[in-house]
Write a structure and sequence with these properties.
single chain; 5 helices; 190 residues; elongated; mainly alpha
Length: 190
């Protein structure tokens, strides 16, 4: 019955909490979260006067315990926002020790490696070995991509070509016993 009696009345606005009454923490958190991204209107939010601490106020606060205005006296409680007297100090950019850059030296002794020798001419056997090493897996990949049936000869050519070409290239590698190379980049010779 009580619900039906309240249906015809206009909704009442919530009054701000009075000093000395407990706050509803859930409602306060909900209000903070709801207004998180909102920018305040310029001039509507002022810096609280109690936050402005001067040396005289700090010395007086240390000497006496803080006494607020009497909440029962209407003249002591001001509803007007305090004047905004905040200032912003912008410091110039100062160069620090990490901003130091040494003077560039024209001849600083960087090592410049010699030009590498040209690649040796490949003979016919080496060329066919490289074709087999690269062509075998490419043949198998083409069968998979084009969804052809993987026959025995395709697998044999793909895997066998790769293994045969790889074995040929390894067998024909230089052993490094050639003493006729006078490469100055090999290090110190004793």
């Amino acid at each position: 019955m009580a619900d039906r009696e309240d249906e015809g009345t206009a909704p009442q606005e919530e009054e701000p909490p009075r000093p000395g009454t407990p706050l509803d923490e859930e409602a306060a958190w909900a209000a903070l979260v709801a207004g998180w991204d909102e920018e305040p209107e310029p001039g509507t939010v002022a810096w609280p006067e109690a936050e402005n601490v001067t040396p005289a106020k700090a010395a007086a606060a240390d000497a006496q315990p803080e006494q607020g205005p009497d909440p029962t006296d209407p003249a002591a409680v001001s509803t007007a926002p305090p004047p905004s007297d905040r200032t912003i100090v912008i410091h110039p950019v100062i160069r620090g020790p990490r901003d130091y850059e040494p003077a560039e030296d024209e001849d600083d002794g960087h090592f410049v490696p010699p030009e590498p020798p040209p690649l040796p001419e490949a003979d016919v056997t080496t060329k066919f070995a490289w074709i087999a090493v690269l062509g075998g897996p490419l043949l198998l990949l083409a069968f998979v991509l084009f969804q052809f049936e993987m026959t025995w000869w395709a697998v044999t050519v793909g895997v066998g070509g790769f293994l045969g070409g790889f074995a040929t290239l390894v067998a024909r590698m230089r052993t490094g016993d050639d003493e006729d190379d006078d490469d100055p980049g090999r290090g110190a010779v004793v």
